[in-house]
Design brief:
Distance between the termini: 26 Å
Largest sheet: none
Number of helices: 7
Structural class: mainly alpha
Number of domains: 1
Order of helices and strands: HHHHHHH
Shape: globular
Oligomer: single chain
Number of strands: 0
Helix content: 55-70%
Strand content: under 5%
Length: about 110
């Protein structure tokens, strides 16, 4: 899946390392911190990590939650992955993920995941 080009060198470095990061469980906490701080690339990465269960336990609801965040910031790849993830979710799970996003309550729930 091709990533959308970003303008800053720091972001490009982040994206170049993304493949290695998402496969290294030791980097999940750093990616979570970046996602919580609002970094759309980290939000996409965390959504991908939760979708695949690499470095963190697979969780489609958390994946959906983070992908919605990235999508809201204009990440087209997040929109595509979100469509893929939601295909295997029940309507109730999708509604729950959407409700969590709208209430922002997962930020506290996800901190120990």
């Amino acid at each position: 899946m091709a990533r959308t080009k970003r303008s800053t060198t720091k972001t490009r470095d982040f994206l170049q390392e993304l493949i290695l990061w998402r496969n290294d469980p030791g980097n999940a906490e750093e990616i979570k911190k970046l996602a919580h701080s609002g970094n759309p690339d980290a939000q996409y990465a965390l959504g991908l990590i939760y979708a695949e269960g690499r470095g963190l336990k697979q969780d489609e609801i958390k994946s959906c939650y983070w992908l919605i965040h990235a999508k809201q910031q204009g990440d087209q790849d997040a929109e595509t992955l979100l469509q893929i993830v939601t295909q295997s979710m029940s309507l109730d799970e999708i509604k729950y993920a959407d409700a969590l996003f709208n209430s922002q309550s997962l930020h506290s729930e996800i901190s120990d995941a």
